Amino acid sequence: MKHLPHKTIARLSQYRRALLLCLAKGKTHIFSHEIAKIQHITAVQVRRDIMLIGYTGTLRKGYNVKELIDLIGNIIDSEKRIDVCVVGTGNLGKAIINYFKGRRTKLTITAGFDIDPKKIGKKITGVPIYNVADIKKIIQEKNIRIGVMTVPGEQTTEICDMLVDAGIKGILNFTPKPVNVPHGVFLEEYDMITSLEKVAFFVKTQNEL
After folding, report:
1. Inside any domain, residue 119
2. Are residues 122 and 174 in the same domain?
3. Which of 37, 43, 147, 207 is buried most, with the most CB atoms less than 10 Å from its CB?
C-alpha cells in the first residue's frame, strides 16, 4: 500500500468521507456507480481504486459500507496519532482549525502559530496559539509532524524553512506562493485562486456556447 498513487490516496479519503455520510443515514451497502455519482467521477475509476486496496464487493449488494470505511482507515490512518500545527491563524487558519476539530481521531491539530500579540496565548476551539518565534521548540516538544501554512505569500518561504528545520515531515501549503522542500518532506500545495479561476473558465466557456 506504500506505493499507491497520490491521486488514489486522495480519492480514498473522499470515498471514506462519502461513505461515512451514507453510514450515518443507515446505508449498509453501496455500489461503485453510487460512489461515482457522489464524487462526480466514473464507476470504472471507483472500482479500479478499490481493487488496488484489495477489496471486492458482491454483484447483488455491492460494497459493505462499514468494511470499506474500516479498510480505507487502516490504509490511510497511522496506528498512532499524528499531530498537526497551523501556521497563520487568520480567517483561513482559524476556519481550518474549527472545521477539523474532532473529525479524525488519528490526525489532530494540537498547535497554532501567529505573530499577532493579540492571538498569542489564546485558544481556537481548544487549540493553543503560540508565537511563531517558538515554532521549533513547540513542534519538537509536541512531536508535531505535519504543518499547514496559511500565511501571507511573502512569509511562505521563511515559514516553510522553519517548519523543515523543526523536523516537520509533511507540509500543506495554502499560500499563493509555491515552495521547495528537501527529500523526505512531503509537500501538498493548494492554490485557491487557481482553482477558482479554473471554475470561472469553465463557467465562461459554458456561457459562450
Report:
1. yes
2. yes
3. 147
The three cell numbers of residue 140 are 519538537
Nearest to 127 by CA among 87, 173, 80: 87
Per-residue pLDDT reduced to its tens digit, 67-114 = 999 999 988 887 788 999 999 999 999 999 999 887 777 889 999 999
Rounded Cα gap, residues 178 and 31, in angstroms: 39
**Which of these, 99, 105, 113, lies nearest to 82 by C-alpha position?**
105
In which domain, by residue range, is 65 found? 6-75
Could you tell me the CA-to-CA distances from 31 to 16, 48, 52, 78, 179 in Å, in that order? 14, 13, 17, 27, 40
Count of CB atoms situated within 10 Å of the CB of 29:
17
Residues 22-63 pLDDT 10s: 999 999 999 999 999 999 999 999 999 999 999 998 989 999
Q: Is this structure's pTM higher than 0.85?
A: no
Q: How many CB atoms lie within 10 A of CB 208?
A: 6
